[in-house]
Amino acid sequence: MTTPSTLVLGHRGARRVAAENTLEAFTRALAMGADGVELDVRRTADGALVVHHDPSPAGGDLIATTSARALRAAHPEIPTLAEALDVCAGAFVNVEIKNSPREAGFDRDDRAADAVVELLDARAGRDRVIVSSFQLATIDRVRACSATVATGLLTVTRADARLMDRLVGLGHRALHPGRQGMTRRRADQIVADAHDRGLQVNVWTVNAPVTIRRLAASGVDALITDVPDVARRALGLS
Q1: Domains of the chain
Q2: Residue ranges in the chain whose pLDDT is less than 70
Q3: Number of H helices, E strands in the chain
Q4: Model's pTM, two decimal places?
Q5: Residue among 23, 6, 1, 5 at smallest CA distance from 14
């Protein structure tokens, strides 16, 4: 049976019908009935937070070394995080901070984490947000800046009890495993182990109806999907 608490989150919005990580993509995802969206955040050279997956837009300069004004002039389709949160008012937003040491523009001081917390504080807590990253240091920095902003670690396949214990000890609230690690044999145990520790399990990126139904039946808290309309039909929600 599908658990009533399984959320459907549009991966970078409804990216199959609109350009990903744009206001249109977020609006379309919510219009399809998604409970919220997952989006990617980067920091510009002058400290602005913008929503984009890659270090540079197609044909553009590195976001980390470009001012917000220059980026907006060259790529008006790239929204700020504040604009995205406004469009998603009332919905759940998974804010993934992009900051990998394997990419150009890596910020070892995690200034984007500081800026995300500052923005959320300035918005007076009116947003339903969890902040995630593949970098444990990044979500640790969010926790250091705020005791109230929920945080989760993204992984590709790792979701073992030792990792869960470490996350709990650091004050994080969720594990975001990739679909690849949530096999039929392992999913039920992973969810049970996480829930026993008070951790949410939000899985990415799940598009096949059979997998959507299987993971929902395992009790995952959220499914991040490119096709929120397909996910809702698979779950019998529309």
Answers
A1: 7-234 (3.20.20.190)
A2: 1-4
A3: 9, 9
A4: 0.96
A5: 23
